[in-house]
Design goal:
Order of helices and strands: HHEEEHEEEH
Number of domains: 1
CATH superfamily: GAF domain
Helix content: 25-40%
Largest sheet: 6 strands, antiparallel
CATH class: Alpha Beta
Radius of gyration: 15 Å
Number of helices: 4
Number of strands: 6
């Protein structure tokens, strides 16, 4: 049983330290990518605060396909270069968008979303997908959030086997 009550903090540095410690336990002796992505999506959804969707789009057959997530039902397929997720995947760089309504080509899977952070998942030079985190709050994600979550994605990639 996992107790998430120890993770909540008003200090983002302490929060991410606690999340990282918890992630180490989640991934301990587990190499299955789908299982690790599922648990990480749940962990982030329940601990980050002010997020309304956390999940993955996996790169399959030239497009992004919905993977494990927490939140409302979402778009199933996204073309490379389309929306925030497709653009981050195509550019292979993290996109931190303070107001998605100002992002040309934004795909509104959830009309309540105002801010988005999308981190490409690249292992050994291969695009595997993206981690997508949405918030109803404009400008929800800071540079500190971005760096901490990029490090967590790196942990996921190192801990998991991908076919």
């Amino acid at each position: 049983m996992f107790d998430l009550t120890s993770i909540h903090s008003n200090d983002s540095e302490s929060l991410y330290t606690s999340i990282n410690d918890f992630v180490d336990g989640l991934f301990y002796e587990e190499r299955d990518a789908l299982a690790n992505m599922s648990n990480l999506a749940s962990l982030l959804y329940h601990t980050l605060g002010d997020v309304n969707w956390v999940g993955y789009y996996l790169f399959k057959s030239g497009e992004l396909v919905l993977g494990p997530f927490q939140g409302k039902p979402a778009c199933i397929r996204i073309s490379l270069g389309k929306g925030v997720c497709g653009t981050a995947a195509k550019k292979r760089e993290t996109l931190r968008i303070s107001d998605v309504h100002q992002f040309e080509g934004h795909i509104a899977c959830d009309v309540d979303t105002n801010a988005e952070l999308v981190i490409p998942m690249i292992k050994d030079g291969v695009l595997l997908g993206v981690l997508d985190i949405d918030s109803k709050l404009p400008d929800r994600f800071s540079e500190e959030d971005q760096k901490a979550l990029e490090n967590i994605v790196d942990k996921l990639l190192k801990a998991s086997d991908y076919d």
